[in-house]
Write a structure and sequence with these properties.
Elements (H helix, E strand, L loop, with lengths): L1 H6 L3 E6 L4 E6 L3 H13 L3 H16 L6 E5 L12 E5 H5 L3 H12 L2 E2 L5 E2 L2
Antiparallel strand pairs: 1-2, 3-4, 5-6
Length: about 120
Amino acid sequence: INKMKKDLNWYAFYWDCNSNSLERTDVIHSDLIDDVKKAIKKGQDFNQIKEIIRRNLMWYYWSKSEWEVLVSDLHVREDSPKYKVEKIDIYYQLEPNLDRITEYMINNLTPRKRQNGSVSKN
């Protein structure tokens, strides 16, 4: 799994209050990899695996203050009535990409057949 983890990366932004800076974090962690590998092994389809990924990412990143950032328009002054700030979390960043994340994980975690017909492990 550790070798596999190095090869699978999907990043999202968060504010690190310790370093007082915008950072990125890799959201594909070993628990998620294990869950997807088990689902692939069981023969679950794309939508079932997508639901596993969605639930896992929600559990880790949805509505948790340590994963939230404030986003605003760079070109509107703070004292303008049009100025607006929105709070988003990591899950908010990932949710529109769930189909692509699912496809990416399935493609990279599904064992591939070698030319001689044997299955290689990722």
